[in-house]
Predict the 3D structure of the following.
Amino acid sequence: MPSSHDWINKPLGVVEAMFAQSNSNPEWEAKVLEYFKGQLREKESHSWVPSLNDVPLHYLKPNSLVKFRCLVQDMFDPEFYMGVYETVDPSTKANVLRCGKYKDVTECGVDLNSRNTVTAERQTFYCVPIPGESPWAKESYGCSSQARVVPSTSYVPSRQKRSYEEDDDDMDTQPQKQREPHTEPHGNGDSKRQETEAPSSQTTAPSDCSSHLDLNFPLPGERGPACLVKVYEGLDSFKLNDTLEIYGILSVNPVLTVLGEEKDPSLLLLNPTESMETPEEQRAHDPPASLVPRLHMLYARPLQHNNPLLPSAPTEDQSAFVSSFLVEMASVRAELLAYLTHVLLGDGLAAEYLLLHLISNVYTRRDVLPLGKFTLNLSGCPLNSYTERLYQIVQQLVPCSYRLSMSLHTMNSMRLVPKKDYVANRLVSGALQLARNTSLFLDETQLEQGQLDSSGVRNITALGNLISWQKVDYDFSYHQMEFPCNINVLVTSEGRSLLPSDCQVPLQPQVTPPNMEEYLTTIHMAQFTSQINKFRVYLSLARTLDYSISDEVTKAVEDDFVDMRKDDPQSVTAEDLHRMLVVARLLSLSLGQTTLSRDGWMRAKHIDMLRRSRTEQQKSLNGNEP
Amino acid sequence: MSSPTSTPVGSKRSRDDIPVTPSSDGLASPPSQRRRGQDSSNGDLPAMPTSPATDIASPAVHDTSLFSSPRRSGNFLPSEVDMSSPLMYGTPSSRVEGTPRSGVRGTPVRQRPDLGSARKAPQVDLHTELPSADGAVASEQAAGQKLVIWGTDVNVGTCKEKFQRFLQRFIDPTSNEDENAGLDLNEPLYMQKLEEISVIGEPVLNVNCSHVQSFDADLYRQLISYPQEVIPTFDMAVNELFFERFPDSILEHQIQVRPYNALKTRNMRSLNPEDIDQMITISGMVIRTSQLIPEMQEAFFQCQVCAFSTRVEVDRGRIAEPAVCRNCNTTHSLALIHNRSAFSDKQMIKVQESPDDMPAGQTPHTTIVYAHNDLVDKVQPGDRINITGIYRAVPMRENPRQSTVKSVYKTHIDVIHFRKTDEKRLHGLDEDSDQKLFTEERVQTLKELAAKPDVYERLSSALAPSIYEQEDIKKGILLQLFGGTRKDFSQTGRGNFRAEVNILLCGDPGTSKSQLLQYVFNLVPRGQYTSGKGSSAVGLTAYVMKDPETKQLVLQTGALVLSDNGICCIDEFDKMSDSTRSVLHEVMEQQTLSIAKAGIICQLNARTSVLAAANPVESQWNPKKTTIENIQLPHTLLSRFDLIFLMLDPQDEAYDRRLAHHLVALYYQSEEQIEEEFLDMAVLKDYIAYARTYINPRLNEEASQALIEAYVDMRKIGSGRGMVSAYPRQLESLIRLAEAHAKVRFSDKVETVDVEEAKRLHREALKQSATDPRTGFVDISILTTGMSATARKRKEEVAQALKKMIQSRGKTPAMKYQQLFDDLRGQSEAAITKDMFEEALRALADEDYLTVTGKTVRLL
C-alpha cells in the first residue's frame, strides 16, 4: 500500500498499482475513486493538497494530486481514448498491458492493433477560477491551505520550498519580485527565465499573453490559471456554470503543445483529418499545457458557497457551526445594520433593504418563475465616486462580486451574453456567466445620454431578462439556449432605474460629508477584521437557512391581504404580495428565524410601507417621473 | 475500414511499409469494445465484376487511356459515363471481357469512400485470376458458399439473396413518406424505385432501414452491425437485379445503396464506444461546412529516369510508394505527380445536436461528419438533418519524433445518407419526422390519464401552476396547444383550413401575461418568443442573406417560420409597428408567408398558432371603452384571433383570498407537495405531443348539428337589436375549439360535449372582449368592424338628421361648412362632435346627395 502521502505526490502510482492488481476486472475503477474519496474524507486531509488557485503552476509537481476551485465555463465534446492498451517492448518483444486512464499520453511503443485495447469515453470541461472572487476570499483560502507543511518525501527542488512559503501570503506580488533578478542580467540562464514565464503571463501581465491566447475568462481583468479538466465519471451530473472543487492529477506534458508542427501542406493533403481543425479550434482545445494545464479528475465536490470562513461540506461540523452562530445572529445583524447605515450615509431603511438583498437567493423555481430573488434598486445615489466606494464595501462583505459600470460605451461594446464561436468550437464567455450567488453591482450612475446600438440593446435586454427571470439566453447563433442563474443584482442609479427591479429604495442621506472618499474610508477602517469576518459569515450563512410558514401565519397573511385590498384595491396587487412575502422571508432569515412569525410579517409590512411612502414622496417631488 | 486490428495480412501489409508521407497509422478505427477480432481488410467480398488490378495493369493501356484527366476512351462506353472519375478503376479491357452478367459490365463501379474510409471498395473478381494477396481469401469464399466474412456472421451469398428478396417483395401499404409520392403502394416498393432509377438515371437507391427490419430482422441486424461489409453486398445485389430487369439502361456508375433511418441511435449524446463501426442515425443541425477537400484515391508516379509511370491506390490513408521502377529497375526513382493523381471529393461538416435533445444546463455536443462525392454540398449551415452513416474513431497521428502518443481518438461519421428534417417546411408535406417515439408504458399512462373524466380540468390546472386562477384563459391556451384538425381543401381550390387557434391576451400590466407566455414558450418544442418592441417584420418572417463566402443567397427564416407547427408567443403585441403587424394577416389566416425578395419568390409554411399579449393604450384598462379602443389594434387583425381574453384585476374579496392563499402556498410548499397537486410538465408535454400526432378528431352528426344551432343562436342574439353577433369566422373558431377539446379527451370523434365547451369558452371570451360598454351587450361587430352596432346606428341617425335639416332649408346649392355644423349642433338634442358631423357628411356624400369641397358643401 502507498505510504501516507504518496496519494498526493504520486497518485498515478496508486492508480497503476490498483490496475495491475485488478487483472482487467473493471471494478478497479470504482476502487480507485473510493480510495481517493476515502483519503479526502479524513479530517483536514483536503487542506494538504496544494491548490492551483494559490500556487503558481510551475511550482507544482507534474502528475501530483492538486485541487482547483473553479467554474465550469465550457463543456467540450466527449472524446474516446485508450482506456487500456498494450505496448510492445522493441528489444524484448514483450507485450505489457497498460492503463490509459487519467493520462494524456501513452507510453512508447503502443500496439495499435492489439485486441486487448479497450476504448473508453471521457469528456473535457474548460474550467476557470470562480469569476469575481473577492480578494479576501482568495487570500483566506490560500492561508488555510496546509500544503506547505507537506513533507516533501523524495524530491522537491529547493526553489519550490521557498516558493510555498512566500507564495501563499502574497502571490500577487511574488512573481514580480522573482522576475526582476532574472530579467536584469540579460540572457542569463534561459532555463530559469522560462520557468517564470508562465506564471508571470498569467498573473501579472495578462495583456501580453492574452494577445495570442485568450483564456476565456467571463470577466475582463481576471487572472489565474484556466484548466482543462478531463472528466471520467458522472458526466451527466455536471452542469455548465457549476462551481466545483476538483481534485485531480495534474498533467503538463509538453507533448500536449503541438502548435505549429504540422504546417507542411503536403501532409494536410493526404491527411485531411488533421486539417479539419482550424487553427482557432486547435488553440482553444489544445492550448499549451504550460498555460492551461490538464487535470484528470478523481473527485469533485460541488461548492455550495465559496466563503472560506464557513465549513465547506455539509457535515456535522457545519451544523455545529451553524447552531453556535445562530445565537450570535441577532447581534451580528444589528452591528452589520449599523455599519451599512453609516455606509449609506445614515439611511437606516436603505441599509435594511441592502442587508436583505445581500442574503437573497433563488431557492426554487415554479415553472418559469424564480422564487426568492430580490433585485434592489438604490436610487438617488450621490454622484462622483460614491458608487465605486459602495461597491468596494460590498466586495469586502461577499465572496463573489462584480461591478458593471453601465456607461454607454461599455453597454455598446461589452459582451455580456456568452456566445458560441463555431470556428473555434467553444463558448466565448461573457460577463453574465457568473457563479451562483455572485453579487452583480450595476452602476447606472455612469450612464449618460446617447444612442445604444444593437449590441447595446441586446445587452440591456439580457440584463432585464436576468433580473426578471434569473436566466441568461446564451447565443448559439442558430438558436438561443436558456441557462438559469442565481445572481444578486443591485442597481444603483440617480432616478428610477431603466431596468426592472423587485424593489426600489430612494436613498435619503442623513449626513452630507464634505469629503465622501474620506468619510467612507474612515468607516471602513474603523471595522476590525474580526468584525468584518463575522459579517461575511453571517451573510453566507443566513442564505443557507431553511424557511417555512406555518398554517396559522398563512391564514393571517391571507386575511391581511384581503383587508388591504378592501381599502384600496389599486394600491396592493398580487405583485406587492409577492414582494412582501419575499421581504418577510428575508427578514426572518436575517434574524436567524426559520419560520415566519406574525411579528415578522408585520415588520415586513411596515418596512415595505415606509419604502412605498418614500417612493410616493419621490414621485410627487419629481412630478413627471414615472 | 473497420478495425485495423489483429494480425496484419501478409503481403498486403508489406505494401504499407514505405509510406509516401508519414501519415497516420492507417485511418483505421480502434477496436471497439465488442472486439470483432478480425481483420476486416480480409472482409473482401466477391465483388463487382471488374478487375481489381490496377497497379499491375499493362502499361500500354495506361498510357493511352489515362493520360489526361478528361479521358475518353469512348470505344464502348457512351458519353454519360464519367471516365474521368477518379473512382473508376479497372482497365477497359477487364470491363470488356467482364462477366456473364452482361448488363453490368458497361457500368463502372464507383468507389464508396463512405464505407471504407479512404480504402478502395474490396473488389475480387471470381472470374479472373487474382493477382494479389486478396486472392487467398477470395478464393476461399468462392470455394465454399457457407463461408462468412471474417469477423462477422455475414455470408455474402445469403445476404445478397435476402436483400434481393426484400427488394422484390417488400410492400408497405401504409407508407406516407414524401419520397414515395406517386408510387403504387400495393406493388413492391423498391422495384418501382429501381424503375425510377432506370428512367431518371440517378444511380442511388435509398433504403429505409425500418423496412428492412420489418421484412427481415436478421438482415437488419447484420446491416447495422457490419455496414461496411453488408452494404457492398447490397450494392451487388441491386446491380444484378437492376441489370437483369433493365439490361439496356445506362447509368453513370453502378447503383449504390444508401440505407437511412437506422433505429440504432437517435441522439448524439448517446453515442458511445460501442457504436464504433456500426451504422447509426442521428439528428442534428449543421453548423459549419468546410471547403471541398480533394482526397487522393490514386497516386500517379513517374520514374525520373525512364519516364515510366505507374499508379498506386490509397490504402487506408497511405500510399505505398513503389521503391523500384519496374521498367528500368532503378531504385527510388519514382516521383509523385500531383496533377495526374486521382482525387475524390470530400467535405467536412460539423453537426451540433438539436436543442430539443439536450439536457438542461449543458452545452450541445458537436460531431464531425464527412460527406463524400455527390453528398458534398448537399447541406448548408443551419439545416436540420438526419444523418445515417458509419461511426468511426481514428487514433491521433503518431509523431515520428516523439515516442509517446496522445491517447485520444478522433471520431467522425462517414455519411451514407442525409435527410433534411425541415425540408417539409418548404414542401408542405406532413410531419413524419416530428413523430416522437413514445414507449409503451408512456402511452399507457397517457391513455389512463385521458380516460379520467376530469382530464380537461387537470391539464388546464397543470398549465402554469404558478399563475393563479384565470381558469378560462388557461383552458383556452390548453386548447390552443392541442389545436384543431387540419383539413385540406386544396383539391377543390379552397386551400388549407387553418387548424391553429390564435389567442390574444389583453389587460392591465402586471397580470402575469408575460409569465403565461414564457410558460407556453417553454412547454412546446417549437415555441418562439418575441417581443413586439424588439422584432421587425423581417425578424418575424424571413430574410434573404448573402453568404459572405459562397456569395449565395440564403433564405434565413424568422420567428414565425421557425415556429411552424408550434406556437409563436408575441409579447407587447400593441407595441409592434404597423408594418410588422401587417405580415401577421397572412400568417394568421392562410398560414403561409409569401416572400418576394432579392430574386427569391416563395411561399413558406407558417402553420403557427399565435399567442399574443397586449397592454391597453392608457396603461390601465378603461372599462368604458371597447376592446378596440383600449388596445388600438386594427380590427382586421383582431378578428383573426379565435379567443380574446381580458386579464383584469377582478377586485373581489373571495378572489383576493384565494389569490393570497395561492401565493403564500407558492412560497412555502415544498417541491413534493406541488408535484402531487399538479401534473408534471413532462407528462403534459408528452400528452400534448401524443395528441397532436395521433389524434385527428372529426365531427360526428350530433356535433355538427349542435354547431349549427350554436351558430344560428349566436346570429339570432344580435339580429333582434339589428346587429350581427356572429360571422363565419366565429363558426370556424368554434369548430377548431371543439376539435381541440376532443383531442384533449383522446377522442377521434367530436361530440356534443366538445361543442358545449367550445361554445362556453367562446362565449366567455366574447363576454369579456366584445361587450359594448355603452349597452352592455355582447356585440361581435366590435371585433369585426371595429365599431359597435349602436355606434353605427347613431352615425346613421346623425346623417339622417343632417339630411333632413338640409332638405328643410329648401334650395340652397351651397352652404358654409362651419355654419352647417353649428346649425346641426343647435338642432340636435345629443351632443354632436366634429367627428360625428364629418362622418355624417361623408355618409351623405356616399349617397351622392352632396359634395364637400374645402369649406363649402354643395348639394347635387
Remarks:
- The radius of gyration of chain B is 36 Å.
- Chain B has 30 helices and 26 strands.
- Residues 1-103, 117-145, 423-436 of chain B have pLDDT under 50 and may be disordered.
- Chain B touches chain A through 95 residues (CB under 8 Å).
